[in-house]
Design a protein that fits this description.
By secondary structure, this protein is of the alpha/beta class. It has one domain: Vaccinia Virus protein VP39 (Rossmann fold), CATH 3.40.50. The protein has ten helices and eleven strands. Strands 1, 2, 3, 4, 5, 6, 7, 8, 9, 10 and 11 form an eleven-stranded mixed β-sheet that branches. Helix 7 packs across helix 8. The longest helix has 18 residues. The two termini are 20 Å apart. 42% of the residues are buried.
């Protein structure tokens, strides 16, 4: 990469002097906004929309109606619901958790999947997803830092698992807490942006673009992301990468 260009709220990756990404063209399912406002969606999840900006995030990543999407480490399922709305009834969301999280969220995950109708609860380890070259897109939020801060090998393995599930040309959206140099980012549950880009490239991805739609200049990067003073509103990177054709 020879440089980065910030335009209209987005950071564009420039390679060899040529911009290779700005904003992916995405057509979310027509009922996306209505689905997020549905009475059945938990009120506490709706309250996070203003901060998490689901439409802007998924349009940037390039999630289209009808896609098959793998959500990596879905946890409690906030993004599962959002992705379900984005792909619509003709699409599918694989809501993946490892055994550790699957047990914790089993009942809630099953209930959400039944309610939404286009979600498959997918309790597999990243190294054995059984989805080789089958999904159009993958997405993960606030998860890579844990693997990468354990070890570089673990970080690459995390991303390699995602890479293997994607079809050639498939897109990958990644969100994580921004860490800064000189801090104990492992203790703070953060990660440096440059390290994320490096790990993505090591795993075989082409990094297309970045967005600052989730940036928060008020974040105190020396605090643990769970610090109550942050109110869960950390400075977050949003990166779009792609598995080459």
């Amino acid at each position: 990469m020879n440089g980065l260009r910030r335009v209209a709220g987005f950071v564009t990756v420039v390679a060899a002097g040529v911009a290779i990404g700005f904003q992916a063209s995405a057509e979310l399912a027509p009922g996306f906004d209505a689905a997020l406002m549905a009475a059945e969606r938990p009120a506490e999840e709706k309250e996070r929309d203003a901060m998490r900006r689901p439409r802007q995030v998924l349009e940037f990543v390039g999630i289209d109606a009808g896609m098959t999407v793998l959500e990596v480490f879905a946890g409690g399922g906030w993004y599962t619901e959002v992705l379900s709305a984005a792909v619509g009834p003709e699409g599918t969301v694989y809501s993946q958790n490892t055994a550790r999280f699957a047990e914790r969220f089993a009942e809630a995950s099953a209930a959400r999947a039944e309610r939404l109708g286009n979600v498959i609860v997918w309790n597999h380890e990243l190294g054995s997803l059984e989805l080789d070259d089958t999904v159009d897109a993958a997405f993960t939020a606030l998860n890579l830092h844990d693997a990468a801060n354990d070890s570089e090998e673990a970080g690459v393995a995390f991303l390699t698992g995602v890479y293997g599930a994607l079809k050639p040309g498939g897109v990958f959206g990644l969100i994580d807490h921004v860490g800064i140099a000189g801090q104990d980012n492992a203790e703070l549950h953060r990660i440096e942006r440059a390290r994320v880009l490096q790990l993505l490239e090591q795993a075989g991805f082409t990094v297309e673009a970045e967005s600052d739609v989730l940036a928060n200049s008020a974040d105190n990067h020396t605090l643990n992301v769970r610090d109550e003073s942050l109110g869960r509103n950390t400075d977050r990177m949003l990166i779009r990468a792609r598995k080459p054709q």
